[in-house]
Design goal:
UDP N-Acetylglucosamine Acyltransferase, domain 1, 10 helices, 460 residues, Spore Coat Polysaccharide Biosynthesis Protein SpsA, Chain A
Length: 460
């Protein structure tokens, strides 16, 4: 019976699973349940995950499986609620023993308790037990039992530090290796977002600068408690505020990263940044690097809609980049070559749609003014080029095509939802495309109003 079930899974189940649509998580859960997997609610499994004997798996609620995970379940595997199995992790219940150079065979079940995170490229050996809340660092090897609420790294993985349970309790370690990177975070009233941004950088950045624009909430207190350097500078504008920080902060490292308070640096990107900054700065040909980011809307990452990939220069050599002279949606002007990194940031404003709407109301006013004034700006801005890089092409469209489009909101919706495959993001994709389309209506109306005001002023 077991052989027959394995044959049916190999011939029918696995191909049907692999051919499923990108976001069809419910569909894939149904297939796995049909083949005996005990699967909790809202489990997110990517279609590139390779399962062997899914009937031996028990997976709790809200578990996430990343791309390329290999689950070899000849023996039972149990994964607790809210755990995350990152891309290219291997869960092996049967394999050759690395301790004997493969001469002996090992076999046994695997237990991963609740709230664990097994990071990229980790191998979990037979008879391993990862207790509650453990984080296993990238490219690790789990062989045995790991105690709860620890950060474990190495081959084999060993506990190195306590895992911080609440981001508001993030505190910079007393001793840490120098990364040659300093982080600049411009803020104003970011008490909800800032702890998450700090949680991703305090353990490894040489210094974290929080440039505050006279916040009235607990932003500065949270930053100081975490160990960041807090500098208060009254608001100058989006580009000018960041340029002020680049020019005036006492930055000693060779590399600078500009991070918004509603963003997080994810582990793969962190590792890339440290690897680059650890080399002699003269040996790095690039002066700056484009960073890709996920955009989170209504608690879901947007994978299409023209918002992914989303490249922005954020990581650069000291003295080699600064922001263009623009009121909103500013980009960096770089002296030298620009590269790209594989890792990601995540943009997730936790303050809700009410704040989004007020922010877009301001952005639309600034954007309308920029579109009208941009042709008169010759210096300190990105050059508009149809055949340039991503930012130059986008600027060319805004300058030479966008102002002449009728029903700009409709063009934006068709572009995002149809041409850029926003429909593949499901109902959230539809909501997001409609939301951004209303932003275009704001811009169009404010452009009309601004031109009318200027015409009336000229006639007086």
């Amino acid at each position: 019976m077991s052989s027959l079930r394995r044959l049916i899974w190999t011939i029918i189940g696995r191909p049907v699973f692999l051919c499923s649509p990108h976001n069809a998580y419910l569909y894939r859960r149904l297939i796995l349940r049909l083949f005996g997997m005990k699967c909790g609610r809202n489990v997110r499994i990517r279609r590139s995950v390779k399962f062997d004997n899914p009937w031996n798996l028990t997976v709790g609620d809200l578990v996430i499986f990343g791309d390329g995970v290999i689950v070899h379940a000849t023996e039972p595997i149990e994964i607790g609620k809210r755990s995350s199995i990152s891309q290219y992790v291997m869960l092996l219940t049967v394999c050759r023993d690395y301790k004997t150079a493969g001469q002996t065979k090992r076999q046994g079940k695997i237990i991963i308790e609740e709230d664990c995170w097994v990071a990229t490229d980790t191998v979990v050996m037979p008879d391993s037990h990862i207790e509650k809340g453990v984080v296993v660092g990238a490219r690790g090897l789990v062989d045995g039992r790991l105690p709860k609420w620890k950060i474990c790294i190495g081959e084999p993985a060993q506990p190195r530090a306590e895992r911080v349970l609440y981001v508001h309790e993030v505190v910079a370690p007393d001793e840490k290796a120098l990364s040659n990177i300093e982080i600049i975070i411009p803020v104003k009233n970011e008490e909800e977002n800032l702890p998450h941004a700090l949680a991703g950088v305090m353990e490894w950045a040489d210094r974290v600068w929080v440039v505050d624009s006279e916040s009235t909430d607990d932003t500065c207190e949270i930053a100081r408690k975490a160990g960041a350097e807090v500098v208060v500078q009254p608001w100058l504008g989006y580009a000018k505020q960041k340029n002020w920080a680049i020019d005036n902060l006492d930055i000693q490292s060779d590399w600078i990263f500009i991070l918004d308070a509603d963003e997080m640096i994810l582990p793969t990107l962190r590792d890339e940044l440290i690897a680059i900054a650890s080399q002699p700065v003269r040996e790095i040909n690039e002066s700056a690097f484009n960073i890709n980011r996920y955009f989170v809307f209504l608690q879901k990452r947007i994978r299409h809609c023209g918002y992914y990939p989303s490249w922005n220069v954020r990581f650069f050599k000291k003295g080699k980049a600064r922001y263009e002279n623009r009121e909103v949606h500013e980009h960096m002007l770089v002296d030298g070559k620009i590269g790209k990194l594989r890792g990601h940031m995540e943009h997730n404003d936790r303050r809700g749609l009410e704040l989004y709407l007020s922010k877009y109301n301001l952005y639309s006013s600034l954007e309308a003014k920029e579109i009208i004034d941009q042709p008169q700006k010759d210096e300190h801005t990105i050059t508009a080029k149809l055949f340039g890089d991503v930012q130059q092409r986008r600027r060319w469209v805004k300058q030479y095509v966008y102002p002449w489009l009728p029903a700009k909101w409709l063009f934006r919706f068709i572009w995002m939802y149809g041409i850029k495959l926003g429909f593949l993001d499901g109902i959230t994709g539809l909501r997001f495309c409609l939301f951004i389309s209303t932003y275009e209506i704001f811009i169009s109306l404010k452009m009309i109003e601004l031109r009318q005001r200027r015409a009336n002023h000229d006639n007086e």
